[in-house]
Queue: 2 jobs
Job 1
Amino acid sequence: MSVTAAKGFTAAGIAAGIKENGNPDLALVVNNGPRRAAAGVFTSNRVKAAPVLWSEQVLKSGEVSAVVLNSGGANACTGPKGFQDTHATAEKVADTLQVNAAEVAVCSTGLIGVLLPMDKLLPGVETAAAQLSEHGGEKAAIAIKTTDTVHKTSVVTKDGWTVGGMAKGAGMLAPGLATMLVVLTTDAALDSDVLDKALRAATRTTFDRVDSDGCMSTNDTVLLLSSGASGITPEYEEFAEAVRQVCDDLGQQLIRDAEGASKDIKVEVINAATEDDAVEVGRSIARNNLLKCAIHGEDPNWGRVLSAIGTTKAAFEPDLLNVAINGVWVCKNGGVGEDRDKVDMRYREVHIVADLAAGSETATIWTNDLTADYVHENSAYSS
Amino acid sequence: MSVTAAKGFTAAGIAAGIKENGNPDLALVVNNGPRRAAAGVFTSNRVKAAPVLWSEQVLKSGEVSAVVLNSGGANACTGPKGFQDTHATAEKVADTLQVNAAEVAVCSTGLIGVLLPMDKLLPGVETAAAQLSEHGGEKAAIAIKTTDTVHKTSVVTKDGWTVGGMAKGAGMLAPGLATMLVVLTTDAALDSDVLDKALRAATRTTFDRVDSDGCMSTNDTVLLLSSGASGITPEYEEFAEAVRQVCDDLGQQLIRDAEGASKDIKVEVINAATEDDAVEVGRSIARNNLLKCAIHGEDPNWGRVLSAIGTTKAAFEPDLLNVAINGVWVCKNGGVGEDRDKVDMRYREVHIVADLAAGSETATIWTNDLTADYVHENSAYSS
């Protein structure tokens, strides 16, 4: 299903030879219309990969005819030659599909600081174009994997229209956005400004609140393409909620497949004075290595939650803080609460609630534990 | 040597039974004058342990007669009872030594969220007082260890006067200050305002730039006590430099003994527009888990350095960034530089230079690699 669940889209995923192990590494997603409306959200990292710089320009027109994605190389920190390669890739797609290169978005993922093997990538575009299909969404999702152990897709179907998508991402997963590539498609008939509004609203509370390892990538890209092929223009709220659901589902799939993780940790901050405070506190907790180690060891170490809260500028009084871990309020009023031995941490999902007792706002950040497997994977894999 | 290297001080370190394993856990440092001038710097964590709240008040007078330190329990997040325990500890020291309780600083380190065993701690104060000696500095340094594998002391002797000190700290090591207790002593004859100025200047560029694991403690304390017993009042600059040297040496000892670490990483940011920019970039690099894993794997992964720089607000142009690892400029002008295979990473110390090409300011942050041993120690040890 994936990006071809919505009508008006074809896709393909092939092995172009970019990856030395011969796994699929090139995906193509084509919008066959009648509309070509699109919106995009990109990494806020100031060191941006060449394909991000290119695609940001493409999205300014609000029109995207095709997206070409490669794994096996991020094309980041590759200088003018890297940008030329991205440009050449877009031109190749444009020539092959008979579309305008200025409407071809490019996404890359993999090792930073290495040029792409263009002698393999460009012929791969032709191979992929020849395999474009209304059933190609899954193959496309497979072709963008790097250290992902599974491919990620999600679909929400409403009254006559659909939002679907695919995502990749397993490491360098942190806000603004997570290290990931995401392509969403819809056959709802909408303009690019509506797509943009719905996409930003959705990513703000989904992908932007996935923070597996605190490391922000140079390549993060989320695209939303509308073909309008359903002929239906849904109400904004209904459409925005469908986009949010797909983003939330894909974000959860990223967390569940994070490199080396053994726990998925839901950090819910409640009773904050402002939503910004809630997010700041949630992120501080989610990024605390000592806490992440404790969770790995199934140790309900609430002292590390408090020490993380204490590093923020959020409104709170230390003596009023409460913390629950998997439903047990182990910290009450800034001190010892219920018996920590009551906390059951055997399951993969761990739920931490931090009550700031300072207002009524809330935010949820998702993260993972810190494990020896994470260290092993990221000291052995150059990415 | 340690805190008794300077004239006018006695110290002791004993096993009071706070630690279940019977290791030394209580230290006493006494200033026998003629002066009792003192200065202190404390954690900027807003969740502060009871002894920090107490000692901050004590230091306001600029006078400290004695410091009592315990390992085996941080007395943090322990509510009103925890503060009463700190107060009772200071009163016990005051009674035993016949000094004013308002001049007794208290420091604690160990597990957060657990009350101290006062039935063992208070008798321990008497035992320690009975063993006070001009040669007790080393025993005091041993008694404040937690997960430290070695005790840390440092001494600088100048023309007739001395600055010496001890430190503990191995985990939750991050700025503002590192998770650590430090007591410095001098027999130079100086007022508390001069001590304060010299101590803040020293910690700003030493302990505050030690960032082993990004986790800021609730208990960090650095104290500087002057007995004036040398009768000598040195020039401020000479004294400040001696304090800085002792702080720098102790900070280095903390990094070398950081939990689970196999590498000591010197992150030097050069050509920054401002010192604040240099520190922000240095910290961002030092806290990047992916980079810390790569260094553990002896992988000169400069792409992770650039992606960390890109998350900051510092002044720089991505295309002008340069990065050297152990003397090899692996990244030039934001792209591929010298051959990364030339980088020799076999030794414990790793030197990363990040050239922002945006000015002439510089800062150095020290950190450690991220290892499976760190994960193991912090998922198994509740602290």
Note: Chain B has two domains: 2-256, 264-380.
Job 2
Amino acid sequence: MTLPRALAFDVFGTVVDWHSGIAREASTFVSTYLPAVSPAEFAMQWRRLYAPALRECIKGHGGFVVLDTLHYETLVQLLTTYGLEVDQLAPEALHTLAHAWRRLDPWPDVAEGLALLRRRFAVVTLSNANVALMIAMNRYNGLQWDALLGAEFAQTYKPDPAAYLSTARALDLKPNELCLVACHHSDLAAARDCGLMTAYVDRPMEYGGAPAPDAAQAQDWDWQADSFIDLARRLQVMST
Amino acid sequence: MTLPRALAFDVFGTVVDWHSGIAREASTFVSTYLPAVSPAEFAMQWRRLYAPALRECIKGHGGFVVLDTLHYETLVQLLTTYGLEVDQLAPEALHTLAHAWRRLDPWPDVAEGLALLRRRFAVVTLSNANVALMIAMNRYNGLQWDALLGAEFAQTYKPDPAAYLSTARALDLKPNELCLVACHHSDLAAARDCGLMTAYVDRPMEYGGAPAPDAAQAQDWDWQADSFIDLARRLQVMST
């Protein structure tokens, strides 16, 4: 197998543990306003509104809307569903909670594995996160990237092919010289349809241990690994 | 003076010494094919074709063309002016030389000063360089940024206002919360017209000691510094 010339990373789930991070960030709010709901369940319900919001934005005619804004809108939607009067809440508290997605920690293998991979490959984000969100998250958790690409750069969301193809183009690469690293089969399938190489990293705890919704879409990906350190080894990056 | 919430940097001249870098990178080619020309003069002539090429791209109707490509096109233009038969040269040698702009060193104060500034501020590029060029340059010289913004992200070149305003928008900032750091009065003037804060850093050796072409456009900028370390001090970043 030819090695890729650069690696593009999905972020939510693949790099950072959004499930426990959102539960942690939302816990005070949830215990105050929604005492019958567990923070972990709240995180799961919020994330469930994510894919439909993206699809709406891809199809919609209102122009591209950044993910920070979709997080805010889906938060309002979720709280309304829970029966809260959103107008009665402090706007500041809502904005802080919507920015919970900026304060997520990487999985334990990521800092070391990403630094290893970066020795040999340019590493960029190919995430639906907007630039301001990614900058805030990186400054929060200390991760270093060669560039932040993906949705905002492409002005559309994954799995729209333009999101993958614009990343390759910005890197001055042919699609088949770029490898997407992701824990989601659906994301990898869309990347493969665009001609990208694919590396699957298993994140069994993404949904707190529950099965992933796209488990049935598994294929034989170009590489399969159980951590970024394992991926570095498979991509022939020496650790010493 | 209120402090900015993020810093956006011009790159060629402000961060890296293109004049001596291009002279160094071109020296073998120039001594082989243009023995009557000094590499420093070659660098200066090549750079002179830069602003007209950008203006043409801003005004033109051919869509946005990345800087790597403009470097290649202006190189061919320059060599033709010197009387070389470009068709007779190895395409590989031309491409390597056009990519000389990817292999430039920072001024001596930059690595330390930028690291200091980054402790307190998000630091992004607001350069006419394309993403692939900036990634290659950063991997060559070791500089670290929070994001690569500017021309390719905006799909237009400075001094088009859209280049400055799209950078602020991507950072989720109002224009007056963002400060451009540049050694070019013309760049700072365009940023100020868009409402950005401005920090001038003096780079007297940008043209090998010759006066800068925009010296007459000097204004009282919000901050003036003679190095990135000096700028960090003026922006109240402690060095210990």
Note: DSSP finds eleven helices and six strands in chain A.
